[in-house]
Design brief:
The chain is of the alpha+beta class. The protein is built from 7 helices and 10 strands. It has an 8-stranded antiparallel β-sheet. Strands 9-10 form a two-stranded antiparallel sheet. The protein is globular and about 55 Å long. About 35% of the residues are buried. The protein binds a DNA duplex (16 and 16 nucleotides) through helix 6.
DNA sequence: ACGTAGTCCTGACGGC
DNA sequence: TGCCGTCAGGACTACG
């Protein structure tokens, strides 16, 4: 699924296109992404409301509506929006279409893992993806001291596991976890609590820099991800380790290795990352 | 309180 | 060509 940089890109695109625009109605083809399975309830909660703003919270995208409801999208692996999809181009796996003053916004989800929750705005933090949300590493709240503090609250995790813990740091997923550790020259096997101060500082700046660069380049596309306007990101051209199994390390003469940790792939350079 | 496996799905790819 | 196993930007649940 999209990670923080992709979700941020999508949220900005959607907000710039749809802020203060009215949703007229909703056409549902498959309602399984919705938490509430009653189509009438879903339609009543959304139809004829103005979109006040669209923003990112962690890996979720929040549509705040004028009628005091909010829609919380979590795209998981393959959820995406298509702005202005024309009927004749309707993509396979289009789950529903929002009909707005500025045309149709389709929600497409090949694997159907995405979730859509409609909830009163004042009860937003009761959503399961928002209630235990960690620090957002793109905000000022993410200070070095805070970083040290959350590291000390994860004494038994490896560096890779730690970066993926959404209740500690929110937004990093499998691609950026590998890229961040490579930039910081830290092995994915290292226990996070064993990092020295210089290593912790390097990891801290790598988290910030990798995410900032990826946002700048509008995210990473390796198969399905598209931004709000159905365009690919650019960060895939900058990947140093993710999906680079057996390729030469860009820094030393070693080869990039693919390993499994907690059931998920990690890519790293054995030589550079200690 | 851990780690691990299973789960929701579709599609792409490699091996035979 | 096709069939089969494996894997994929995620994260919850169940089990030991």
């Amino acid at each position: 699924m999209p990670e923080l940089p992709e979700v941020e890109t999508i949220s900005r695109d959607l907000n710039s296109y749809l802020k203060n625009i009215k949703i007229n109605s909703l056409i549902i083809f498959d309602n399984r992404n919705f938490k509430v399975k009653d189509d009438k309830i879903i339609k009543d909660a959304i139809s004829n409301s103005i979109i006040s703003r669209i923003y990112r919270a962690g890996k979720s995208i929040i549509w705040e509506l004028s009628n005091s409801n909010s829609i919380i999208f979590h795209l998981r692996m393959t959820g995406k929006f298509i702005i202005n999809q024309q009927n004749q181009d309707k993509e396979k796996h289009t789950m529903f279409v929002l009909s707005t003053e500025k045309g149709q916004i389709a929600f497409v989800d090949i694997r159907k893992f995405a979730t859509v929750d409609i909830i009163e705005t004042k009860k937003l933090n009761t959503n399961k993806y928002l209630q235990n949300i960690g620090i957002d590493p793109t905000t000022e709240e993410f200070s070095y001291n805070t970083f040290e503090k959350i590291i000390s609250s994860s004494p038994k995790k490896t560096s890779k596991q730690f970066l993926l813990e959404q209740n500690k740091l929110v937004g990093i997923g499998n691609i950026y976890a590998s890229e961040i550790l490579f930039k910081a020259k830290i092995s994915p096997y290292r226990l996070i609590k064993t990092l020295s101060k210089p290593e912790t500082l390097l990891l801290y700046s790598s988290v910030k820099n990798i995410l900032a660069d990826a946002i700048q380049l509008r995210g990473t596309t390796f198969s399905d991800y598209r931004d709000g306007f159905n365009k690919k990101g650019e960060f895939q051209n900058k990947l140093k380790v993710y999906n680079q199994n057996n390729k030469n390390c860009s820094y030393c003469e070693g080869k990039i290795k693919k390993i499994k940790q907690n059931g998920r792939s990690t890519y790293y350079c054995q030589n550079c990352q200690k």
